[in-house]
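Subgroup meeting minutes
Present: P.N., E.W., G.H.
Scribe: E.W.

1. P.N. recapped why we're keeping a running log of single-chain structure predictions: easier to compare across weeks, and new members can see raw inputs and outputs side by side.
2. G.H. added today's entry (183 aa).
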Amino acid sequence: MDAAGNNCGDYDMKELVMKVIVAGEPGSGKSVISQVNDACISLRPLGVSIGLKSIPDKEQQCNLTFTTWTLTKGRPKDTTYLQGSKAAIICADLTKIKTIKKMRSWAKSIRKGVGDIPLIFVGNNVTDAEGGNVDLILKIAKSYDSPVVLTRLDDRASIEEVFLQVVKAVRGSVKEDSKICGT
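Output recorded in log:
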């Protein structure tokens, strides 16, 4: 399957490019996800920051490149520019209950705007969090049958796990006859 979602038959891809939405309330840790990008530009009028993030997938022997579309001005009224997204990362700061409670609203807005794409729920600041806040994110994610990744601000590996979960979720949502990086 190519970046546009077209079936490539038996073509063995060595690189997968995937458009991903990064969303959440202000102070939810979206910038933590965005800061690990290899490159980034801001489109202020649209309220979006576009980043490029690449990580190797050693298991599938290919390179995974993500274009991250981080929503910087709240929920967009026009979601046209989000079309083609393969997944969404919804962030919350585990120390700020407001950002957690708004995760459901973000999920609904994204699904309304771009369809039934996989969602990955991210809880940032896991080292400072209370257990009840983690339980709340787990409950919200379960209602969408989605994974949760808990990150630490100072741990790049936990942030890269977010992107690996995106790949797993997208692989799980594609048709059996499609190939992603030779799978």
